[in-house]
Write a structure and sequence with these properties.
About 35% of the residues lie in helices and about 15% in strands. It is α+β, with helices and mostly antiparallel strands and about 300 residues long. Strands 1, 2, 3, 4, 5, 6 and 7 form a 7-stranded antiparallel sheet that branches.
Amino acid sequence: MTTLKFGRRPPKNAPAIKLAALLTGVVPAHPAAVDYLAQLTAWQMLGNDQYGDCVAVTWANVRRLVTAALGTESYPTLAEVLAFYRTQNPNFPTDDNGMDIQTALEALVHDGGPDGVKAIAFAKVDHTNVDEVFAAVAVFGSVWVGINVQAANMTDFDAGKPWTYHSGSAIDGGHSVIVGGYSGLASDDERLITWAAETGFTDTFWSHLVEEAWVVIWPEHFGSREFLEGVDLAALAIDYQAITGRALPVPAPAPTPAPADVDATFAAVLRPWVALRHSGVNKVAATAAKAWLSEKGMA
């Protein structure tokens, strides 16, 4: 059996923005089954076979997915993952005690990640409402999920089978994964990345063993039509202020390119033409053009 590590601490359940209050209900057209994860290959273990850094690994996988979808792919390195892990394990590797997801999200908003990017905000997803989970995947591209893993799920994983709920199987540990798709099939629904591989959850796994779910709002999302149509930014700003006491740090829009100087472009074409010999109608036009160039100071 594969030797792998867990590392998600129990949720601290501090006050948090609720995603349901932010959704406009405008979800872009999408198929009944989507798998944004499948657009990428070569997912990395990033130390989760040696350390309990699954929360930090989820951060890296989320950053990879959002940058690949909305910009230029950037996959945090093992060194960056371990640097993030040290935010809750300052004496790592002596400290190897896992991480709490919400505390990690707070750090990403307050300090940013080791890749230099600060999250704008995060919101709690009602994991018991599957429609909300699917809407979150459609709007944000992924959901950050905290689960409890049974001993029998490790057999599922080694066999390449979707993880399901096994009545009577002991809990091996808490784990953090990225969910980036869904199939609509009860036997293999939510699609996820864990331990460098893609697999699925059955509906019974989701209903029994998922403990928390989150979405993270990154600067890249403000260039996403799905996000801008699917999220009420005014409601987000109000809820953010209520939770943090600060104004929502919305990224500045990209500068609008200066309009082309049409007159200068026209004058550059016109000057050599008026210098030619003209007669008839062209001479009249050339005389008018010379006057225009003189008035504009471009003769």
